[in-house]
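HUMAN:
Could you generate one sequence with tokenized structure?
ASSISTANT:
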Amino acid sequence: MKDTIVVGVALHSEAGRRSGQRAIAWAAERAMDRHQRLELLSIVGGAVGMVGEAHLIDQARDDLRSQLEAEARTLADAHPDRLDVRVRVDHGNPVAKLIDASKDAALLVIGSDFRGDAGPARGPHGIRIAAGSHAPVVVIPDADPGARSGVVVGVDGSDLSERAIAFAAAEADRLGEALITVIAWSPMEVSRNPGLYPPEYLDALARLSEESLGLSLAGLSSTYPDLRIERHVERGYPSEAIEVYARRARLTVLGSHGRGAIARFLLGSVSEEVLRRLPSAVAIVR
């Protein structure tokens, strides 16, 4: 299934159906462009082992399967012979089940009912899924992309950042969009005379960041000769610098810093902060 995009679809509410359909549409476009299969996956959650619950689970599974099959037929009718769409319904903890489904997936896509700055993206779920996933995760907000353009990627010079750049460049090339690269720097915090730094110190930090960005992008133009690359070196906190560009972008790509059995379920602070505010569709790459 490594050539399969798994879409986690929540159909239990109007908001869930709306965000799920946005996620399906995004994933279907990518599947056709990349010649990948599409699997629509819904999870029946909330079971606590009460008497009579098994019958309710069976009813819910049948209902969800019918809805997913209707979504699959709509896609097949709209794109005949271009999409291989499958459906699956499972039951259990939705976060754990989606993380498990990511083991054999090329990409996991989930919708979010987040609609602005009033709260986090799907509560803890989007963050926990992105942190624990074995595959890259794309979180699609419940918002019309409108006139957005460009693919933003956060750069910090790490190996994980290199993978994020590779993912973002491939998406920008696929979409015919500019790759907007952002690296941020900030001076060390000092208690005495905060804000008063030697100019040569600030200049050195800026130059070091520019050099790191240049090294990270070396060779990218030869891989994607038609790709337009924007380079932005910003003074400030990384998540805030990235969000300035992400608010106008079609997609924002960041690395996850989870490591190990426990740390795998934690995101790096920058990725988590951007994902909580969800200024655009956000991809978290491992």
Q: What stands out?
A: Residues 53-78 form the longest helix (26 residues).
